[in-house]
Design brief:
This protein is of the alpha+beta class. It contains 5 helices and 6 strands; from the N terminus they run ββαβαβαββαα. The chain has a single domain, classed as TATA-Binding Protein (2-Layer Sandwich). It has a 6-stranded antiparallel β-sheet. Strand 1 and strand 2 form a beta hairpin. The model has no long low-confidence stretch (mean pLDDT 95).
Length: 133
């Protein structure tokens, strides 16, 4: 499912396992893990509740720099991020911004095509690895 550039796919794992698998797959591809944020844990620190929700920020300069050389503002959306979250029914989902949408957002739709294609293939493969059995 895609909504305004946000791709959301179902996961067969809980949130923690989905992000663990995503992190392992990203590292195996030589990507840098910049941060892993447990939003539910953060909510608990201020006395609030939140269903399991974790964000992974990942990427590498080889993929992002060429796009930033064309349009530096895309740096606000890079490195890439993926959010694993549990809905009210207990189902786990993985959401991420589609690289083509990010390129269009920063007026790169007609430039950076090969880089965008490579990023799209990479993030789709990582999402599949994280969410599949």
């Amino acid at each position: 499912m895609t909504d305004n550039g946000l791709r959301t796919v179902p996961s067969r794992h809980d949130v923690k396992v989905t992000v663990d698998r995503l992190e392992a797959a990203a590292k195996a591809k030589g990507l840098t893990i910049f941060a892993r944020i447990d939003h539910a844990a953060g909510a608990r620190t201020v006395g609030l509740t939140l269903r399991p929700t974790e964000l992974l920020i990942f990427g590498n300069a080889k993929g992002g720099t060429p796009l930033m050389q064309l349009q530096q503002t895309i740096g606000i959306d890079l490195p890439l991020k993926a959010l694993a979250w549990e809905d009210a029914a207990g189902k786990t989902w993985l959401s991420y911004n589609e690289p083509a949408w990010l390129a269009a957002r920063h007026a790169l739709a007609d430039r950076g095509g090969n880089v965008v294609k490579a990023l799209t293939g990479a993030v789709e493969a990582l999402a599949k690895e994280a969410t599949s059995p």
